[in-house]
Amino acid sequence: MTDLKHPSEQLTKGDFTEVKKPFELFHEWLEDAKGSEPNDPNALSLATVDENGLPNVRMVLLKGFDERGFVFYTNFESTKGEELLFAGKAAMCFHWKSLRRQVRIRGEVVEVSAEEADEYYGSRPRGSRIGAWASKQSRPLESRFALEKEVAKYTAKFGIGDIPRPEHWSGMRLVPTSIEFWHDRPFRLHDRILFTRQHADEPWSKERLYP
Predict the structure, then answer these.
(1) Hey, what CATH topology would domain 7-123+167-208 get?
(2) Average pLDDT for 89-100
(3) Catalytic residue from among 104, 188, 192, 197
């Protein structure tokens, strides 16, 4: 059974006085999820908006986080990539059903450095690196065979040598201005704590919200 005797215990007791840094609390909750979720504890729903103001959402995987923000990777020529580059803003939602917890995050998105993207790309399985070249993500695909042909083409092109990172494939960092922690309580009287700031270089403020 997962040990909840740290920040989450403070939430269930309704005492947020010791919860000072949202990234520390997120780290604790993510570590708890790694021990309880059957699949992908780093999975999140990522919401974007298109040029017509219509929202879009899909599941992606968190690949890193620190005080600068939350990092994920994508094809910039995909629908997701185009919407991120267009709006420069996004929202995330983590839901860990086994722990009855949720974290919602909003803020601006910025591209990670080339060095950071190269490092992560190089850590991926070879097949995934080939896939980044072969997949014209989000665009119409005439058949599965057509995709397999692209995979074969790039497999032959790169042989057993190095596979460089495509220019259109990189990472985005969501720099949060809002992080909300939600914890289930009986009778739907849930605990919610919201951290906010106007800019990334400002200190966080926090407040409790009605459930």
Answers:
(1) Pnp Oxidase; Chain A (2.30.110)
(2) 97
(3) 188
